[in-house]
Design goal:
Elements (H helix, E strand, L loop, with lengths): L1 H21 L37 H9 L4 E4 L5 E4 L3 H5 L2 H4 L11 E3 L4 E5 L12 E5 L4 E6 L17 E4 L2 E4 L14 E4 L4 E6 L18 E6 L4 E5 L13 E5 L4 E6 L5 E6 L4 E4 L3 E2 L10 E5 L4 E6 L2 E2 L6 E3 L2 E6 L4 E7 L17 E4 L4 E6 L4 E6 L4 E4 L3 E2 L5 H4 L3 E5 L4 E6 L2 E6 L3 H4 L18
Parallel strand pairs: 1-28, 2-6, 17-23
Antiparallel strand pairs: 1-31, 3-4, 4-5, 5-6, 7-8, 9-10, 10-11, 11-12, 13-14, 14-15, 15-16, 18-19, 19-22, 20-21, 22-23, 24-25, 25-26, 26-27, 29-30, 30-31
């Protein structure tokens, strides 16, 4: 059974490699006394390019579970995820050495890195209980979190006193003396893996030197952070050309056909830019909007390589004080060729059933086997699938283990693991997985498995 799992992994690795070649509230979990993690050194020498380190052996119990998981079935992984890494004093102060990372305010997206077979996570809270610059990656088969960058700065308001001595202004960017970001924000949906750079990209936000007792000119363009896991180092991408404005609530995704990652934001002035990873320049894609409608800020987005389009889901916006809906739930497609957004679904009263889509609680990912988008609607604990060709949403009724509640396991982070063909929700060290369609079933059909149950929470 384990051998069959490894053959499946090898097959998916080949598929992913060909795709790359073609494109050249409180975030801590409930209080308790969790089992201590085994902290092992994780920082490898910087002289081993293209190596995925530390090497982590697969967990046989996890491999067996993943290998036997059926269609429309969910499961909790056995035991708690291991925590591997160098946990410094700041990490231990916030119990990262026992609890691992949990979802943070507007920071739940994990970035899948096909060249590493793991998913990255970083990003900050509003400030409670911390605002750290730590970087992690999760290995599903090994059931392990690796702390790649122990936090060396806490940007929590009112706590600059003990960290400010570690801040410098270099080449127009504020950073720690070790080169890590200090102007820490949420990631929203602006976190992705750039395979050409072999780096994780995070669209950050700038700051003021005087906040840290410094002076000097700062970078006038966007503050794009890159983390290189093989060298365990941060880099600030300084683009010489016109750059996008890193407004809150934006999206960053890599598109193989474009050979780079794009940045999208729409806070009343829609913008979409493509990063040339070699030249370190941005190109304005000048997106169009059919009937003037396009995804708004804090939407979630996924790339569908089969249909060569982006799928975005926006939640409703209500008028403060009255609760009147001023912007309904909407689904959009973005055609790569015409660079145009088109609304495909509008939910709400009198409209078709559709979920929320929000970067704080309702993540969206593309399932290449089921040829559908999967969305977990956090506020109602409901799982949805989206038929891209049919432009139709359907609630799912998974068999197996239910999704843990925040009271049980805290807040979650999320990604889709194409090597193992599962949606993954990580509640810190507690991990839940869902398989929509198996490889064998995917060859026959990609029809969504619908639920006849009424929507949780009234579908509001």
């Amino acid at each position: 059974m384990i051998a069959r799992f490894h053959r499946t992994v090898a097959c998916w690795a080949a598929v992913l490699a060909s795709c790359l070649a073609a494109g050249s509230a409180r975030s801590d979990p409930p209080q308790g006394d969790p089992a201590p993690a085994v902290a092992q050194p994780a920082r490898p020498p910087a002289t081993q390019p293209n190596r995925v380190l530390p090497e982590l052996p697969p967990d046989p119990a996890v491999v067996k579970l993943l290998d036997s998981l059926g269609d429309n079935t969910a499961a909790l992984l056995p035991g708690q995820a291991r925590l591997v890494g160098e946990f410094n004093e700041l990490a231990r102060r916030h119990n990262l050495h026992t609890r691992g990372p949990h979802g943070r305010d507007f920071t739940i997206k994990m970035a899948w890195a096909p060249q590493r077979g793991r998913a990255f996570f970083c990003g900050a809270n509003h400030g409670v209980p911390h605002k750290l610059n730590d970087v992690w990656e999760y290995d599903l088969a090994a059931h392990a979190w690796v702390l790649l960058w122990p936090p060396d700065f806490n940007a929590r308001p009112g706590q600059f006193g003990y960290d400010v001595k570690n801040v410098v202004l270099k080449d127009g960017f504020l950073m720690t003396r070790q080169g890590a970001p200090v102007c820490l924000s949420h990631t929203w949906w602006g976190l992705t893996w750039e395979p050409n750079l072999r780096a994780m990209l995070w669209m950050g936000r700038g700051g003021k030197p005087e906040t840290y007792g410094l002076s000097g000119p700062v970078n006038p363009g966007c503050w794009l952070y890159a983390f290189f896991p093989e060298q365990r180092k941060w880099e600030f991408i300084k683009c010489p050309s016109m750059t996008p404005f890193g407004v809150p609530g934006g999206t960053m995704e890599y598109v193989p056909e474009w050979g780079g990652a794009f940045w999208y934001a729409n806070r009343g002035n829609m913008q979409m830019w493509l990063l040339d990873p070699a030249a370190r320049t941005w190109k304005d894609l000048a997106p169009q909007a059919d009937n003037g409608e396009a995804p708004i800020i804090e939407s979630v987005m996924a790339y569908d390589p089969a249909d060569r389009l982006l799928v975005a889901q926006s939640t409703e916006r209500t008028e403060r004080g009255t609760g009147k809906v001023v912007s309904p739930r909407r689904t959009f497609h973005f055609d790569l060729a015409s660079r145009t957004w088109k609304k495909t679904v509008q939910g709400g009263e009198g409209g078709p059933d559709a979920p929320r889509g929000h970067d704080a609680n309702s993540p969206l990912f593309y399932d290449p086997v089921g040829k559908a988008c999967l969305l977990f609607e956090g506020p109602t604990r409901t799982l949805w699938s989206y038929d891209v060709k049919g432009a139709r949403w359907a609630r799912l009724a998974p068999q197996g283990d239910p999704v843990p509640t925040p009271e049980q396991a805290g807040r979650y982070t999320a990604y889709f693991d194409p090597l193992r063909n599962v949606l993954v929700l990580c509640f810190g060290r507690t991990v839940w997985v869902y398989r929509h369609t198996s490889v064998a079933s995917g060859a026959r059909t990609s029809r969504p498995i619908e639920s006849n149950a009424p929507p949780a929470g009234g579908g509001k």
